[in-house]
Amino acid sequence: MGLTGGIIQDAAFLLCVAVLVRPLGVYMANVFERxxxxxxxxxxxxxxxxxxxxxVDPESEMTWSEYATAFIAFSLVGTLLAYGLLRLQRFFPWYxxxxxxxxxxxxxxxxxxxxxxxxxxxxxxxxxxxMSYWSQTVALAAQNFLAGAAGLSIGVxxxxxxxxxxxxxxxxxxxxxxxxxxxxxxPLSLVGAAFLVWQGVPVNVHPYARVETLEGVPQIIPGGPVxxxxxxxxxxxxxxxxxxxxGSHPYETPTPLANFVxxxxxxxxxxxxxxxxxxxxxxxxxxxxxxxxxxxxxxAGLATCRRAEAAGSPALRKAGLEHSANLxxxxxxxxxxxxxxxxxxxxxxxxxxxxxxxxxxxxxxxxVLLVNMLLGEIAFGGLGTGLxxxxxxxxxGLFAAGLMVGKTPEYAGKTIGVTEMKxxxxxxxxxxxxxxxxxALAACVPAGLAGLTTNKGPHAFTEILFAFTSCFxxxxxxxxxxxxxxxxxxxxxxxxxxxxxxGLTVPALALGGRFAAQGRRPQTAGTLPTDSFPFAFxxxxxxxxxxxxxxxxxxxxxxxxxxxxx
Length: 566
Hints:
Layout: H1 2-32, H2 40-54, H3 64-87, H4 106-117, H5 127-130, H6 133-163, H7 173-199, E1 209-212, E2 218-221, H8 226-235, H9 256-280, H10 284-311, H11 314-318, H12 335-348, H13 363-374, H14 385-405, E3 410-411, E4 414-415, H15 418-442, H16 446-449, H17 457-472, H18 487-517, H19 533-563
Antiparallel strand pairs: 1-2, 3-4
Helix pairs in contact: 1-9, 2-7, 3-4, 3-6, 3-18, 4-18, 6-7, 6-8, 6-18, 7-8, 8-9, 9-10, 9-12, 10-12, 10-13, 10-19, 12-13, 13-17, 13-19, 14-15, 14-19, 15-17, 15-18, 17-18, 17-19
């Protein structure tokens, strides 16, 4: 596509995201505030029926601890149901034992079920040889819907904490779960699936086709209900591939247009959630500031990754073997530009979908993807969770700035005191503890080193660090040179992805509960405006400084050492 074409594509992508922010943000705010929407006549009777069947009173308020308990219980029940379906998949329809050849061991089934119920969709298996059509649709795609809706519910509960005064409740989790599933994810998935079918993505339950290539070599081609699976995995910021090749498979992403639209599906809802935040808090300028901070971080990562891939491998260039762009592992249908846009979008968006091989990126290009996740996926991150991560980084910056001038920091009229900062600190410490300790352990013990089947040295360490970072960030991307379908990695990554989902949700909800119980302090001349450029600068600077202090030594052992040829 060339430099100019790549810049045009990136600009068009960000422009489309920006255009969608207001209408989608307004719509989601109306959904969660129970205001009128065009779909009410169709969906309200269905919502009422679901509430009655489940025994849910949507007007019943939950404290933050009750909300967190319901969220965790829902996720764990979903995990157990998915685990049972995976373990028993041979007894359900569309199971072909001649093609499903990867053993569904207890550790793999549990890791996969937990992965999908936490929106991580970490996949230690090839879909074609491990999952039946039934498992892909009923066990996994259903979790893409439900886990994505649960993430949005957490984000809305946190926003309510900032809007309420002297309140003990954050809403009702069960009622909040139903609304995004019916009003947001379902209609967008129906439209998106129809678009993908038009683009050539299959929807069938046909047996695997046996064909002969032009070279006379026999080949097995799987089918399946791919289109509905593909759209919700991106809308729900899940990302698990129907096929092992994920987004680079022509049945998942057949055209550049489909690639572009699927990437929009990843970014549009998290980006629009900033406007939902602005409307629900009656602070639209703050919502727009958060969006533009996200866009700036996204654009910086995109530019850095593209430049690194366009420059090619430093080691090969130094040896006189390569003087062009790094096209290794890139999908030829999308080229370097389409592949880099997808890699940066998915690494920022808590979505493990990929249309190229992350393991084949240059050291600097791969580090961009890694850093996007290490920073908490604060640029168009997961549904609800990305906004929370960005806000908590802002709270940390406000607290540090308050210490410098001797003033208690505030945000949206809420005081960020000692107890609030303890919760913010707990949220911030979860990542390094859950990423660095398992990475160090895996790099030392034989069971961890056994997964390194392709590379050694700094790149091998990057593969391990990337794996645990991806699991904690509930992202699911991987450097494929690390083989993780083993007892050690199935258990270790399962523990990390639970911390990434529940270890962050609980302190975030507790913080929301603290804010809801407070009154609202009036803004004074000494209050730092949080809808201004100084706050935006403080937000970005805090994210970069904290990230560097926490992860720079690990990055030096991995991608930086590799970039320098060590």
